[in-house]
Amino acid sequence: MKTKSAPNGIMLYAKSSGPTSFSSLWSIKHALGTEKVGHTGTLDSFADGLLVVLTGNLTHLVPHVTGFTKTYEAIACFGKETDTLDPTGQVIKTSGSVTKEQLENILPQFTGAILQSPPAFSALHIDGKRASDLVRQGIEVNLERRQVFIYALELLDFADFKNTDGCTYAKLKITCSKGTYIRSLARDIALALNSCAHLCALRRTQVGPFKLEDAACYSSLEDFTIEKGIETQKKFQEELKGKSLLAKAEEKIFNKAKSKSPRQKDTEEKVADIKSHFLFFTKELAAVCGFESCYLKSSFEKGYNNGRPLSLKMIEPVKELEVSKDFYVADETALFYKDDSFAGIIKKHDNKIRYGFVVPHLKKELKVFYWDEVCNGAFPVQWKQKGSAITVGSFEAIHKGHQELAEYVIEQKDFAAGAVTFKDSISCKNGRNIFTLKQRLAFFEKLGLDFVIAIDFNEDFAKLSGSEFFNILSTRCNLKFLAEGSDFKCGYKGSCNMAEIAELATQYDFTLKKAKYIEYEGQKVSSSRIKEEIVHGNFTTIKEMLGRPFELALAKLRWHKKSDTAEYSLFESEYDGNQILPAKGTYGVIARFSDGSTLHTELTIEDNVLLIKLPTQKYADSLIAAEF
Fold this sequence. Notes:
The protein is 28% helix and 31% strand. The protein is an alpha+beta fold. Strands 1, 2, 3, 4, 7, 10, 11, 12, 13 and 14 form a ten-stranded mixed beta sheet that branches. Helix 1 (21-32) crosses helix 8 and helix 16 runs parallel beside helix 17 (498-508). The two termini are 34 Å apart. Mean pLDDT is 89; it is low at 249-262.
């Protein structure tokens, strides 16, 4: 399911050897629910390693990130050259191999500014066509030499296999500028030693400040060694072996048709890993990318979003942020709204500012995770790094006591604020809730929480001990603050009480806030008490305990006209929702409609049948809730 708006952020993804960079983006699009992505430098299909992908409005920054320096590790085979200069091509040249000493002596000559001819098999365009496509058509291509910069070139390992295949192999580490072809570098080093070479394997380990080990799916990559590089080469060579031109043409047609078929679904663990590694564009991340940051003053927000002329009085600098000198951007500034959400890029010149691009100010979006997703690692790494403040409970009503717990959590400004709750009530008669999960999530969002973890109560979860439960919250969410009522219990059959949780707080290094329960008319406010009041129709009391009216969700019901009068029509529906219904009777309610309008009317409850007075069928079809 695609989101209404693409998230604005950065995705670090560890591509595996085999798939193209383009096809690898599918997993990211699927996990994040968006089509608006932009990569900042492809990797050949045989290569693996770091892809830096920008999403949403951040795709405007693709040219900036593309310009970052890049670091690679490469396994080069000296003694054989392929037409593609990599393991996917046919061997077209053989020669004597090279020694370790020869390599160590020659590598310094290939640092600094060098001229390099790109490989004929490349994505570079000639007269609007890819060079690689022209070569496959038998057309000779000549690509002009271009200057690139090699910042560092190091020999990490060397292996001599002259007695088996006549070749020697080197593991190289290269830090280079944008546009450098490592395949060409290996070829040119070999030429300087009167030999020939191609790459067996290639891994990108860093793009600017971003490192491969911080990427999603990094754990799925194998160790990058000469032996593994040779295995990669053999795999691609075996695929090529014995294929005729006709077979290749048929395979190309097959792959084209296959690409249009539904893609294989990623595992839950992979989706969770991708979700967790999505990086929101914060002031800190902007600084890492070389941008200074400013706040947009609240009084100028409307004008900014409407494209009014900009002036320096509209912004104020963000202080105490160390901006990367290696990637510093002198004439562009990252702009943020007062709630720290990204507002766009502005350009500065001669004490004047103008628009780069604008990110509209959207309301803060509550992130919802399911328990299994969290166990699989879906909790965002940005939040995990700074820690989380959490309150745990059924929250069937989110009454005033629950709201106080949420406020304690939200006050912990250094942490991501969230709640852990159940998807459905585990105690209501007939399995009915006070509020639906959708209603509870909407209210949690209104309170200002960052996230909610929803638990589907099942046999496996029921068996968790309190220690196991808090161990998961500690390891997966970096729990640092917990707010609970003084008689809170959890774990298998509620066996873990507050005294034991206090011990776990010390063991797992989180602060425990014990809150006193809220009272109304001398009795504790609780979900069970509110249930009883709903059944008896005491909505004044309910409003006092909730801090808001009770609302019955009606959006999914189908209403049929039962009768007409001169003033209104009576519409009827069988209730198939999962909220507790008040006792039989007629109640004055405020009907809410999908267009945001409201209407004072009457709702009658007869067992599991509802009757409501409305002007027309159009009103009935757009009814979403009744507020008591």
